[in-house]
Structures are given as structure tokens and as C-alpha cells.
Amino acid sequence: xxxxxxxxxxxxxxxxxxxxxxxxxxxxxxxxxxxxxxxxxxxxxxxxxxxxxxxxxxxxxxxxxxxxxxxxxxxxxxxxxxxxxxxxxxxxxxxxxxxxxxxxxxxxxxxxxxxxxxxxxxxxxxxxxxxxxxxxxxxxxxxxxxxxxxxxxxxxxxxxxxxxxxxxxxxxxxxxxxxxxxxxxxxxxxxxxxxxxxxxxxxxxxxxxxxxxxxxxxxxxxxxxxxxxxxxxxxxxxxxxxxxxxxxxxxxxxxxxxxxxxxxxxxxxxxxxxxxxxxxxxxxxxxxxxxxxxxxxxxxxxxxxxxxxxxxxxxxxxxxxxxxxxxxxxxxxxxxxxxxxxxxxxxxxxxxxxxxxxxxxxxxxxxxxxxxxxxxxxxxxxxxxxxxxxxxxxxxxxxxxxxxxxxxxxxxxxxxxxxxxxxxxxxxxxxxxxxxxxxxxxxxxxxxxxxxxxxxxxxxxxxx
Length: 464
Prior knowledge:
Helices cover 25% and strands 24% of the residues.
């Protein structure tokens, strides 16, 4: 049997006595991974979008270790208005390779863009098996192309499926149509690349049909397939509903036996937000909303993908607040550099990217600028990486405090790497490397194996 590149671990069902976070995945070495990154669009409302190596270097310095590339069904399929475009496949190759060159892994997400008059009702009814077969054939192009690419993690197989005018309940639509479609797609995918992860979503409900201010219908029946990740979207605008929505997703995750990776998040920003500090649509309120969302994510230990890693050539106008966008940059180009810092400083918070061992908990305290991380070490799994984001969160330097008896620090005025304040007999400071380019702390080896460690990253020098 082919060994899975990424083995899904559902920690709630673990038989160990440890209290690990239940969401997360393992790489081929068994390291505990927290995916975080951005949705990468291949086009926007003005046309094609192109990225270069500098864009990816910028994403890495914002904490990205994962990208979700949105596929256009119209460029991969024989649906009306669509056709397979070889140059589009080359573009996808470029995005995968840019990610690989910068340590970013890729998930592909299928959208229905570029297809004429495609109705969700027709997809569900699937007359003569035409719709499902054509859809799966489009995916097969991707599955076969990237089957042996280790930097392609998997596939988000149906993006925001809809009910629209179909006369059916959301539960029946999910149970009778969506889940069987998922099972069929997964089975076909795993014939080609059984080691890839499969990301699934729930039905995107019609306007005005939210439940607890959540636009996504609940999944209440299992899929019963391996290597499945639950990838709900959350665009919550009301702070009081964030945890409630995530608790519901958590319950679905238990039932599905699939850990959560938030496939998209972050309420869109309005044109007025870029020029306003206070008020309902002001930057201070957005920062408060994003911080609360980030804290809920971190306490649950879920990975998250932010929409969109784009400049702001256009805005949409479907919300009451006026023109809005999900783009995290405000410049009028396809790939931007001018950050909306009221949200990007929250997105780019410190976190454990990959840990040789088991992550017990982690949380970045925005008020104190302190990352608190608890792990159990396992050095046979290789090196660990902790994203610190010194350039935005610790311009005054930072200290690394491990179990209160091993302390190192970084002084940006000296820029000589990490310095030692105090150490222990078992600790080797040379195993701890600060990579300024990627804003990561690299730990080649923990002082002791199978040991509980509390790691704190705090502002200032020798601050404990």
C-alpha cells in the first residue's frame, strides 16, 4: 500500500494520554503541521493575474506555508464555453513551482468560473451522468498532472456548492446529492493519487437563510472516506458568532472524522475602511474582528487560508456597506505590495508551522505580543519551524524562553543572530537558528526527546 504523504491525525480519538490539539496534519516525517496561507487567484475581474518570486517571498514573510490555487473549470473542461487550455496548465505549474521554491505547499480548489450557464440544479440532477463525468474529467487533468508532486498536498473538490431554486431542504440536498458526489469524486481521485488530501465544504446557503449568522449549511452525515479534510469557510462579521460558528464546525469535524482547515476566512473590507479608523466599517473594528477570529482559530489549533493574496484592481458591490474586496493589498495592480495592515498584521501573527513532536496548544496574545506554545518533543521527526514575524511584531527584538531555564534573544540593533542569555546542560544553542529572510525560528533539535516544553516568544531582549 502506498504510504500517504500527509497522514491525517484526529487527536480527539487518540489513545494516548496527551492533550494534543485535534486539528492538524502530519507530514511524511510525522511532524505536526499547521497550514496557513492565502488563496491564490489566477484571474480577477480585470483579467489574468500573474505572480513572481518576490510575491511568494512576501507571502512567506507573512507566515504562508500553504497556498490554495483557485482553478477555473472553464479552462479545464468541456462544459459549454469551456475547453482544456494547455497554457493554463503551464501557469498552474508555475504557481506550484513558485510555492515549492519558497517552501509553500499547494492545494487546488475547483471553481465553476469560465463555464456558460452552469446551473447547480443541473449538477445535482446529473442527467445521463453527463455533469458528474465531465466535472470529474476536469479534475483528472489535475490529478494526473500532479500525482507525483510532493508539494501538491491535495484538492478542494467542490467550491461553495449551492441550492439556489431547487425545492429541497439543505439536509436532503447534502445527504442525497452532495455527499454521494463527494464519495464518487474521492474514489476517482484516489485511484490516481491516493496519498493526496481531499478537502470538502458544505452547502453555501441562499441569501437570507443564515443560521446563527452562518451562511453554510451543517453536514450531519458521514462521508466514510480516508484522507479527508473539512475545509469550511467563515466570513463572519459579528464577533459574538465567531466561536459559535466554529464550535458547530468542530462538531461536524468530529462526525466526519476529518480535521479542520479553514478554506477561506476574513470578512471583506470596504472602500471606506481604507480611509476610516473608527465606526462600524473603520479599521479599528476590523482589527478587533480579525483578532477575535484569529484567537478562536489558534485556541482550536486549526490551519487557515485567507482570501485573497491580490492587489485591488476592482471591487465588488453586493454588500450594504458599498464597494468591497477580499484583497489584502490596496494598490491597483494584480499582485500588490501595499498591505491593509489593519488585517495583515493579524493574519501574519506568530505560530508553530511545523513541529517535530506533538503540539499541545498555542496562542498568540495580541495585547502582550506573546506566543505561548506547548509541545512534546520528538527529535527523530526532524527540524521544527516557528514563524515569529519579527519585522512587524517584534521590531524591538524578541526573547525565546523555553521552560524558563533556557533563554535566547534577538537584538535587531546588532543583527548577529540569536544570542544566549542562559542555558542548561542539555541545551545546545547552535540548534536554534534565526532566519531573518523567512522570519522563522528553525529548531534543528530539541534539548531532550519526549519532553514537555513550554516555548514563549516575547518582545524585548532577555524579557522574562
